[in-house]
Design goal:
Elements lengths: L4 E12 L2 E12 L3 E5 L6 H8 L7 E6 L8 H7 E4 L11 H11 L4 H14 L15 H15 L3 E5 L7 H18 L2 E5 L3 H7 L2 E6 L2 E6 L1 H9 L8 H11 L1
Parallel strand pairs: 3-7, 3-8, 5-6, 6-7
Antiparallel strand pairs: 1-2, 1-4, 8-9
Length: 250
């Protein structure tokens, strides 16, 4: 049985002051898939995420997330989507457990259920032993994992992750990558991963999409994109080589 499309855009377009930020974007992401969303700064990736989250309205075209139109029902979308921005914001005078309780309250999760979710989330991200330490004392890697714990408390069907490994040391990066894989494999969470860390994207993404100047210039499994650009079926190429080929020709 084919996987269900969880994120769908059709001709999605956003124009700011006469400048096209996203240009007739059409793509789908399927249940349990990790989709690598690539492109240089200014390509339109963040604007796309904002439209999918219902934080800005498209100029034209449409999108659905888990069958919900984020333009018409933005609050409903936010209940089923988790978002980890590049720079995660926390109240640093709180500890991790207090921060997650606050997130649970914002999402109207009953107290008893919230405590169970918080304990589970802290265990999954490896912060159970650090849960009563103030966030101000956390390393960047710990704060990124706490951001994932926030997602888990919400129990979303979809996660948007914006540069989740940037600035992390190799050990913290590996832990984050393994955690993202776990969310996809064990929870069937659909993940849209925006990153410039091409090696990490290559490791874990099922398919990739490349955006340049607001347009999706390529999408699909790495092997197919390599064959399209390099012409030899089965030849091994890195994602960086594939990405640069599309970038140079765009």
């Amino acid at each position: 049985m084919a996987a269900e499309a969880v994120i769908v855009t059709e001709g999605l377009t956003k124009v700011y002051n006469g400048q096209v930020a996203v240009d007739h974007l059409t793509f789908s992401v399927y249940e349990g898939e990790i989709f690598g969303f690539l492109g240089p700064n200014g390509a339109g990736k963040t604007t796309t995420l904002l439209m999918l989250l219902g934080l800005t309205e498209p100029t034209s075209g449409k999108a659905t997330v888990v069958g919900i139109d984020p333009t018409r029902e933005p609050v409903k979308v936010k209940r089923v989507v988790g978002y980890l921005p590049e720079h995660v914001g926390f109240y640093r005078d709180l500890n991790a457990r207090q921060m997650l309780r606050y997130i649970a309250e914002l999402n109207a999760i009953p107290a008893a259920e919230a405590e169970a979710r918080i304990a589970r989330a802290l265990d999954i991200v490896g912060l159970a032993q650090e849960a009563d330490k103030k966030i101000d004392a956390y390393s960047r890697g710990m704060r990124q994992r706490l951001g994932i714990a926030e997602l888990l408390v919400k129990e979303p069907k979809v996660a948007f992750l914006d540069e989740p490994t940037i600035g992390l040391d190799p050990d913290a990066t590996n832990r984050m990558v393994e955690l993202i894989q776990q969310l996809s494999q064990e929870r069937q969470m659909t993940i849209l991963l925006s990153s410039h860390q091409l090696y990490q994207v290559q490791r874990i993404c099922h398919r990739i999409g490349i955006m340049i100047r607001g347009r999706m210039v390529a999408q699909g499994p790495m092997e197919r994109l390599a064959a399209e650009k390099f012409g030899i079926e089965g030849e091994q190429h890195t994602l960086e080589e594939i990405y640069m080929k599309y970038f140079q020709e765009a």
